[in-house]
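Task 17 of the worksheet. Students: predict the tertiary structure of the chain below and write it out as structure tokens. Keep your answer in the requested format; marks are given for formatting as well as content.
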Amino acid sequence: MIRNIIFILFLPVFVYSQQLAIKRLPDNINTNNAEINFVQINDSTAYFTVVSEIEGNIESNIYTSTFKHGDWSKKKYTKYNSDIFNTGNISFSEEGRTFFNICNNEMEDCKIVYLSSNTKEGFYEISALFSEEVFNTQAFTIRHGIQTVMYFVSDRKGGFGGLDI
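Model answer:
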């Protein structure tokens, strides 16, 4: 009886289990800095954010790497970076927009912006999210049925305090 109950409780684990391989990324990507938000957009291309401290200042930039011959290549600086802002937390929508953060040098004033397909100039702010008094970061877009939905982190009023999704 007990054996049957245990089997029934764990049946979903066996039926829906998927194989998952956890592999450390090579040293040319995984460094002593903080590498976050690794987004693999296809079998051979990934984007990620590198947060580092340079001469006492926090710097955040978006890099890319390609998967060739069984390993990830050396990271490359992307067009999503700026000489004026720190950038990070990239997300791609099916409609061709690329969303990411821009933050000031102190990483206190962050906004979610986007670029349309294959453009470099003009980071566009999202008017529905814009506010001088609100911190918005870590946008992630996903398709739910016929809608594209953006999840993000914010300290806006109505949350539970601090940064909420």
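Marker's comment: Helices lie at 2-16. The first strand starts at residue 34 and ends at 40.
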